[in-house]
Structure formats: C-alpha cells, structure tokens
Specification:
The protein is of the alpha+beta class. The chain has 16 helices and 24 strands. α1 packs parallel to α5, α1 runs parallel beside α9 and α9 packs antiparallel against α10. The protein binds flavin-adenine dinucleotide.
C-alpha cells in the first residue's frame, strides 16, 4: 500500500476549495489542494460575500483582510432599473453601505441581524487573497498547474491520478466547479434545470464611470443597474469601482461594447478586458459524497447568481465539512459525522436552488414587460426585491433530520426573505451583543461549546464530552437568555445548535455520542 501524500486532497482552488483548505489547516489537518490553472485568473464571477460568509470569515480570523481587499465601506449597494444610466431611473431600491449596515447592526438588540454585514469583493480579488492565506498555513500545500484526472478508493483511502502523477490521501474533496470531474468519476448525476439562458459577460475598465454616473443622489451610489430591454442587460460595479461587468443576451462578443455604451448613455473612456459566455442553471447533485470522496460548492449545486447563493452556499458546505473531516481524522468523530454532511448540506443546496428560482422568476416577470414601462414599473418594484432581499436564505437555514443533531419535532418554517432568530436545534446561533458591546459569537470556541445562560450543574455532560474538544461558556446576560429561550445550548464547532434544554440532558453519554457521530 502506497504511503499517504496528504490527509485530505482537495481538487480545485476556487473559493470553496480554498476556504476548506484554510479551515482544515487551522484545525491542524494536513491537506493538499490541486488546481489545474497555473495561477488565479482575473476573470469576473461573484462579487458579494453575504453576511453569513462574513461571519464565517470572522470566525476564521480573516474578515478584516477580506474587507481591506474589497469595496470601500462607504459605498451604498443601491439597485436601479433604468432605460439607460443618463435617463431618470424607473425603479430605485436603497441598500446600505457596509458602514451604514454596521450602524444598524450595532443598534440591533433583538438578534435579527448578523454580526457582520455583507462585503462586496470580486472573485478575482478574493481568490488570490484566500490563496495567500492558505499558503501561510504550515499544514496546507498548494499545487497549481496540476489537473485531477481520475480516482479509485478503497477502505483505507483514495488514490488520485493527476497530470503530475499519482497522489494518495485519506479523503478527497471535489471542489472542482460545475463540470466537476470528481463528480463524474463518482457517477453522481445533477438534476434540475440546466442551460436555462445564455448570457455574454464583458469586463470593462472605466476609471471615470463611478464619479460620473449621471443618475442618483451622488457619485458612485449604485451596485446593480438593470436595463429594461430585450437583451436582459445589467451592469455590475466591481470592488475597485473602476471595473464593471456587463451581462446581456447578445450573439456576438463585439456587440458588448455597443451595449456598454448604450447602457451608460454618456461618452466615457473605457477598455473591454474580457468577454465570455455563461449559462444559467438550477441544478443539484443526487449525492454529495460516496465513501471517502466528498463534493462541495458548484460541483454539487449550480444556482442563478440572483440572490448570490452560489459561492456563499459553497462556503457553507466547506465549513460544515472541515470540522467533520478533522474530527474523523483526529479519531474523535464517529462514522455518522461524515454521513451527516450530505444530509445537512444537500437540503440547504435544495433550498438555495429554490430561492434562486424564486428570485429569477421575479426578475423574469418584470423583464417580460420591457415594452410597456407603465406596466413594468409597479411589477419591478415588487419583483426585483426578491433578488436582493434574501436574508432568510442567508442566515435562517437549519439542518433538519441530521443524525448528529438532537432534533425537536416541528420547528419554524424556512423563509427566504425574512430571518427570525431561533435556537431550534440545527440553526446557526443568532448574534447577540453582550454588555460592553461584545459579540457573544466571538466567545464561541473552535470545538463544541456548552453555553450556560443560567446556573446549572452540567458535570455529567462535561464528563461525557471530556474526550472531544469541548468547553463550557458561562454567560449571565438577560438579553441573551431572552433571545435564546433556553438555559443551556450545546453548540457544534460550526456554531450550529446541536441540543438545547432548561435542564442538563437526562442521558449525557447518549447526547455526547449523538453529537459526535457515534450515536
Ligand atoms: C456572473 C456570475 C456572478 C456570480 N455572482 C455571485 C455572487 O455574487 N455571490 C455568490 O455567492 N456566487 C456568485 N456566483 C457563483 C460563484 O461564482 C460560484 O458559485 C463559485 O465560483 C463556486 O466556487 P467553487 O470553488 O465551488 O467553484 P469554482 O469557482 O468553479 O472553482 C473550481 C476550481 O476547480 C478547478 N478545477 C476544475 N477542474 C479541475 C481538475 N480536473 N483538476 C484541478 N482543478 C480543477 C477550476 O480551475 C477552478 O479553479 C456568480 C457566478 C457568475 C457566473
């Protein structure tokens, strides 16, 4: 039997593979990430990390670096529907800048807001940053210019054939995007609606546009400009405010320049740096894992970018998987821990596909009225919001029916649009400010945490959890107790609630076994 080159082999250094590598590296797991490109590319894709992703980045200790590399905090995120940018807008939806959102979060006392606001950062900025963070971790090895070709697995590990030779690992994770070869090797099918619409995307460098935008209250006040036309045109500001992407249903690359000029409506100097085609899909994989091979990110779910649940959903996958792989490799995680990955993340993938469909149908509805602006405007006022107001899908997802969560029957309905804080087992711990404006989330450790909001003798559970990373956090805070609704909350390493109660568990050993995958 060949020795192990690494504990976890990650295929694909997109944002999802890189986040997984950082999480594993921080947890002391040796991992290697292979990427067929020779370096990150300057190609436009996502541009918005949502609030949940930013909370995750805060827990990883990298949120400040992401913000420093991304869009300035004072630029608002307004969305406009226009005929062209030099004409009065048809619809204008106000969305706060990061600085404004922070003020709202600071003043929020009912746990209905995230700890971190969103951050606009283009994928071509985020990927090199994540790469440099991953490279700084001693457990993480990055190999660019190395293509994954095929795999075989046995009881002890996975052997991968790559363009640079064979590699053996205990686990392999396919983070290799929409046409994932790892998924194909596992013969896992994607189901849903593929190739719904093809758009061209152009990346433009225009130094002066941000300061010269003709509509709105001041310079550089918008993020998305949707044009009411037959080409489904929209313009998106990127993180530098000098780069812009234009999307439109057009046949030829050359048409994109004319469409950019028509959209702006005033003469500007610009360069078109790139143009390419992309497809809209609403697809989900039938499985997220087979044996020692797991799949994450676009490899298992493809959504329409409306709502921004693509990369953000993939970061959620990575963060669900990282601690479970670490627990398994470190010997304290039971078999159900890794099995729970598919149960937990596939349902979120399904909900995200549904949320994305809901948002894109809304957009399609107002776009179909482009010939009659009097009809379009009232419809767009309502329907466009579905793409930009997704806080329920971002924060409110809860793992149902997981074998490692002490589920309670019933539970609140999932709603894409609104977030209602809850500690129902499976949910993310809502953000609460403590006395002195300290965030409770910042005190939650990297292992399991028993949050004790009132005096209780929990020595039984402490003993039962003594073989796994575990700590007790005593918080005597009236508001936190009110919001959380229970005296005791057992949190997992990913800050999701595993169990709650007003008395210590009746059978602490059984609970410990359940949440660590031995139940
Ligand atoms: C126009 C547009 C706008 C978007 N906006 C947003 C947004 O605002 N928010 C959001 O959350 N999402 C958005 N998305 C979606 C987002 O870009 C994707 O969900 C995200 O890139 C998925 O990340 P990933 O790491 O799973 O896959 P990818 O980014 O596709 O990365 C996969 C990596 O694997 C590598 N790879 C593939 N095959 C192999 C192989 N055989 N061997 C080695 N390496 C391999 C690839 O080169 C690539 O680097 C947008 C997408 C588009 C097209």
């Amino acid at each position: 039997m060949r020795f192990f080159d690494t504990e976890v082999l990650i295929v694909g250094a997109g944002p999802v593979g890189l986040v997984l590598a950082i999480d594993l590296g921080q947890r002391g797991v040796r991992c290697t990430i292979i990427e067929r490109k020779t370096a990150p590319e300057f190609l436009p894709k996502m541009e918005r990390c949502n609030a949940r992703t930013m909370e995750i980045f805060r827990r990883m200790g990298i949120a400040a670096r992401v913000r420093a590399a991304g869009l300035r905090a004072d630029v608002p995120m307004d969305v406009y529907i226009v005929r062209a940018m030099n004409l009065p807008p048809l619809v204008h939806h106000r969305y706060p800048s990061v600085a404004e959102a922070r003020k709202e979060i600071d003043a929020c006392t009912d746990a209905s807001m995230p700890l971190e606001p969103y951050q606009l950062i283009s994928q071509y900025t985020l990927e090199p940053l994540l790469k440099s963070i991953a490279e700084s971790l001693p457990n993480v090895t990055l190999r660019y210019g190395c293509e994954f070709l095929s795999l075989s697995q046995d009881q002890g590990g996975v052997t991968a054939s790559t363009s640079r030779g064979m590699m053996r690992a205990k686990f392999l994770v396919g983070c290799d995007g929409g046409s994932s070869r790892v998924r194909q090797q596992l013969r896992v099918a994607l189901t849903g609606e593929g190739d719904l619409l093809r758009l061209r995307q152009g990346l433009f460098l225009c130094e002066e546009l941000f300061d010269r935008i003709p509509i709105g209250p001041g310079p550089g006040h918008g993020r998305h400009y949707h044009v009411a036309d037959e080409h489904a045109t929209f313009l998106i500001m990127q993180d530098s405010t000098k780069h812009w992407t234009l999307h439109a249903v057009l046949d030829r690359d050359d048409d994109m320049k004319r469409q950019f000029e028509r959209t702006i409506g005033v003469p500007v100097k610009y360069d078109m740096l790139y143009v390419g085609e992309w497809k809209q899909n609403l697809l989900i994989a039938e499985h997220f894992a087979k044996g020692r091979v797991l799949l994450a990110g676009d490899a298992v779910h493809l959504v329409i970018p409306t709502g921004g649940l693509g990369m953000n959903g993939g970061v959620g996958d990575a963060i669900d998987l990282g601690w479970k792989l670490a627990a398994t490799l470190q010997g304290w995680g039971g078999p159900k821990l890794l099995q729970s990955y598919e149960v937990e993340r596939r349902q979120v993938g399904e909900r995200n596909v549904a949320a994305s469909r809901y948002a894109s149908l809304g957009r399609r509805k107002w776009r179909s009225l482009w010939r009659n602006l009097d009809e379009l405007v009232p419809v767009a006022q309502v329907e466009q919001r579905k793409s930009n107001e997704m806080i329920g899908a971002e924060l409110g997802y809860r793992y149902i029916g997981s074998p490692v969560i002490a589920d309670e029957p019933g539970g609140p309905e999932h709603d894409f649009r609104t977030y209602v804080p809850t500690t129902w087992p499976g949910a993310r711990l809502p953000h609460v400010w403590l006395q002195g404006h300290l965030a409770l989330q910042d005190h939650i450790g990297k292992g399991y945490t028993l949050l004790r909001l009132r005096e209780q003798n929990t020595s039984g559970l402490e003993r039962a959890m003594s073989r796994v990373p575990f700590e007790v956090l005593d918080v005597r805070d009236r508001r936190a107790r009110e919001v959380y609704g229970y005296d005791l909350l057992l949190l997992r390493p990913d800050m999701h609630v595993a169990w709650r109660g007003n008395r210590p568990p009746q059978d602490p050993s059984a609970l410990a076994a359940l949440v660590t995958g031995h139940g």
